[in-house]
Amino acid sequence: MEAAAGVAGVIKVALALSKGQLPPTLHFETPNPDIAFGDLGLRVVDRLEPWPTDSDTPRKSCVNSFGFGGTNATAVLEQMISPDVEAIVDVELTTARLVPLSARGPEALEAVARNMLDYCDSTNDSFADICATLSLRRSHHDDRIAVVAQSNADLAEQIEAYLAGETRLTIRSGLVRETPLRLAFVFSGMGTQWWGMARELLENEPVFRDAFMACDQLLLPMTGWSVHQELQADQQSSRINETRIAQPAIFSVQVGLAALWKSWGIEPQAIVGHSVGEVAAAHVSGALSLAHAACVVYHRSRLQQQTAGEGRMLAVGLPEDAAQELLDGRTDKISIGAVNSPTSTTLAGDEQELESIGTELNEKGVFCRLLEVEVPYHSPKMDRLQPELLESLKSIEPRPTCIDLYSSVTGKLIEGERLDASYWFGNLRQTVRFADTVKALENARISGFLEIGPHPVLSRSITECLSGLPGTSDSLVLCSLRRGESERATLLSTLGELHTSGYPIDWSRLVAGRAVRLPTYPWQRDR
């Protein structure tokens, strides 16, 4: 009891705070005559009595403990004020949450799920309180389930689906990895934009909105139009597919997504960007300030818009060396725009030349497809933009990175100081060496790839790059958002997959509520 004396005091005071009662001081009979209790405004409680009430102030008390070696420690405890349950219920009707369940083995995990199913069907506890208790007040064991749900009834329905063996995007399950996941943020480029993107996040996620609007405020004086207003336009008048609109919009969404992931405790060990995605990647890595990154994306998109209608891009199912042979005698008109995987290459430049190549490949039964783009990115058409781009970006000041940045221009790890104006012309003109970059990331023991953008376009390329490489069979390839799907639910589904793999999450930033009494852990007999 000597070692636990302080704990006993804490328990006693916690009960007094909870019950609103002041217990008597044991064995007190006569006050010390040398203490002027009256002058000091003090008295000794000698009988059980109600705690003095003040409706505006929670009850408080100190616990003093003299420990081993004469340690004198004081803890201040405060009454917990129960939240407004009716207000929480209103929020629950529209807000998805991630609900974690875990156990020390598969049999115990199934028992946990069944117990929670019965509990959800019978409890009057609020969904927010259940989520807070499971997230913040339960240990997260190695066998895990993570469910995206909006209410107790929805959670019960999702658990039933899990127990029935159904596969859903809202249900993630897995075992914590023996080797901790090393995560890369992959900032995707053009082709990810879509009408209506980010509206849900702008309305409901303050962290995302603040980061997005910071970009908007920096871009507005340069562009003369608001990215935020462009995303609010109706579908008929939307200009989201124009290069000068799309690139700043993608950039702003990516900065907002990175900030939101960070607020949930998800921070990468490495960063890479694909084409225009390198701008947001450079900022998140620390290589460019937000103001300088906004400057880059504005001038990059402004100048590329000048080449709209001057060419196309052709995706071909060929490795780089075979695609290079198609350029013989045509290098002044077309070039290799991107190498996205060992068997996927994109050509860019003159439309007639690309159509001729497409006809040739179709006759040979080789996959090829003209992409719906208005600008021949990374083609000889970009050459004339060099002088003005270098002049426009001469004032940017690149700096060392805080997170390892891998360049899709060089295909290697790059120092932040190298991202000057000439680098950004290379980003605009040179081949996107994405396949080389993924291989470099794998060599750096990156085992998780989280695409940062409005829609996943690189997942297949990443999977193809990893295919056949030793030790990559359990790599995770994840996305942030999907076109037309609930944005918060998609984010939480990915967060659930990260959680079930063992990646640390800051649950305190995701949930809030009071503790409730949940079913006890279903201990299993050792075998």
Task: Explain the overall architecture.
- This protein has helices at residues 5-19, 37-40, 85-92, 106-122, 127-136, 152-163, 199-204, 206-223, 227-232, 243-263, 277-285, 290-305, 320-325, 351-364, 386-392, 421-429, 434-443, 459-466, 487-501; strands spanning 21-22, 49-50, 60-66, 72-78, 97-103, 143-149, 171-175, 183-187, 270-273, 312-316, 334-341, 344-349, 368-370, 404-406, 413-414, 448-452, 476-479.
- The radius of gyration is 30 Å and the shape is elongated.
- Helix 17 (434-443) packs across helix 18.
- It is α/β, with parallel strands linked by helices and 527 residues long.
- Helix content is 40%, strand content 16%.
- It starts with a helix and ends in a 26-residue tail after the last helix.
- The strands form five sheets. The protein has a six-stranded mixed sheet with strand order 15-14-9-8-16-17, sandwiched between helices.
- Strand 14 and strand 15 form a beta hairpin.
SSE layout and pairings?
Elements: H1 5-19, E1 21-22, H2 37-40, E2 49-50, E3 60-66, E4 72-78, H3 85-92, E5 97-103, H4 106-122, H5 127-136, E6 143-149, H6 152-163, E7 171-175, E8 183-187, H7 199-204, H8 206-223, H9 227-232, H10 243-263, E9 270-273, H11 277-285, H12 290-305, E10 312-316, H13 320-325, E11 334-341, E12 344-349, H14 351-364, E13 368-370, H15 386-392, E14 404-406, E15 413-414, H16 421-429, H17 434-443, E16 448-452, H18 459-466, E17 476-479, H19 487-501
Parallel strand pairs: 8-9, 8-16, 9-14, 16-17
Antiparallel strand pairs: 1-2, 3-4, 5-6, 6-7, 10-12, 10-13, 11-12, 14-15
Helix pairs in contact: 4-6, 8-10, 8-12, 10-11, 10-12, 11-12, 15-16, 17-18
